[in-house]
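[#protein-structures] MJ: dropping HTH-type transcriptional regulator BetI here for a structure pass
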Amino acid sequence: MPKVGMPEIRKPQLVEATMAAIDEVGLAGASVALISRKAGVSPGIINHYFGGKHGLLEETMRSVLRQLSHTVIEHLASVDKNDVPGRIKAIVAGNFDSYQVDNKVVKTWLSFWAQAMHDPQLHRLQRVNEKRLLSHLRHELKQVLPADKAQFVAQGTAALIDGIWLRGALTPGGISPTQAQSIITDYLEKQLAPYL
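AK: finished. structure tokens for HTH-type transcriptional regulator BetI:
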């Protein structure tokens, strides 16, 4: 966690430099020295304010998660509150927004997920993200589905979002937001048809 007094202008520079370094050489090769060079700051700044690379990775993921949350809320704001399929599509669109599928952000996500399996702080961030997605989905689905079915469809939709994202991240062509929306829409139509 950054210490109080970290100039707000430096945080975005350091987050961007961290993602650029991970994109270029992977998490293991993204040293404090490389990140600081990319950000145009001394390595001491990173160590002082973030306690090293781990703290900077945590702040980078917090930034990516804030962007994701903001984007999902922005997409939801443009859809009628009674249009459940439209609102689920908005949540999906937020998760496959151009920022989230940018190559350096994708590689940062993959590095984060790998580290989160072994690091309690990063694992907690991942759990917050997972719970937020399921909460958004359940909230919308409960308008038209019984609670247990809403939970089931929310989990299925979240699994599709994560699975399609991961599969796309690991293929040469990258993530296709259009294909993701199409697959998830097909799933939703089948799940919601008996209730609409």
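MJ: nice. The radius of gyration is 18 Å.
AK: one more thing. The CA atoms of residues 89 and 182 lie 9 Å apart.
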